[in-house]
Amino acid sequence: MGCLDRASELCHWPHDSTGLKKRAPLETVEIKVKMDCEGCETKVRNSVTGMKGVIQVEVDRKLQKLTVTGYVDPDEVLHRVRYRTGKKAEFWPYVPAEVVPHPYSPGVYDKRAPPGYVRNPLQLEDPQASSIASASSFEVKTTTAFSDDNPNACVIM
């Protein structure tokens, strides 16, 4: 029996969780991919549909946007879209214009953005441009100086 006990110890599966992979948290990944036709849309959709952990895939050809919801790693989704489709893909760089205090500042405004969207100031490469997008105290003072609500404000006639 000593030989059989020895063999069972070698084949024993550990019961602790150190050997098991943890499940990724539920995430929504938004990716910008250029799509021209229905064929491109289908190709992009099929590239991520078969991934393990994907729950829902939405493609908006008008906005050039792919939205994947599921228990997935965002970098893996981006790599898979690039590899399977052969298209240039990047994480969705835009946010709604209502979220940004100054949506028309030079670093944030983008002509190529979909209507109602501007570049995300947190994802900008230039730190100076992201600071321009926030309001300074001087700007706040000048906008309230000509306010109708302020009785001591300047009046231009």
From TrEMBL:
Pfam families the record matches: HMA
Task: Indicate the segments forming the HMA domain, all copies.
Answer: 26-94
Keywords assigned: Metal-binding
Q: Which CDD domains match?
A: HMA
| Record flagged with keyword Metal-binding | yes
Q: State whether keyword Disulfide bond applies.
A: no
Matching entries from InterPro entries are given as:
HMA_dom, HMA_dom_sf
SUPFAM superfamilies in the cross-refs: HMA, heavy metal-associated domain
GO MF annotation terms:
metal ion binding
Q: Any idea what this protein is called?
A: Heavy metal-associated isoprenylated plant protein 26 isoform X1
Organism per entry: Populus euphratica
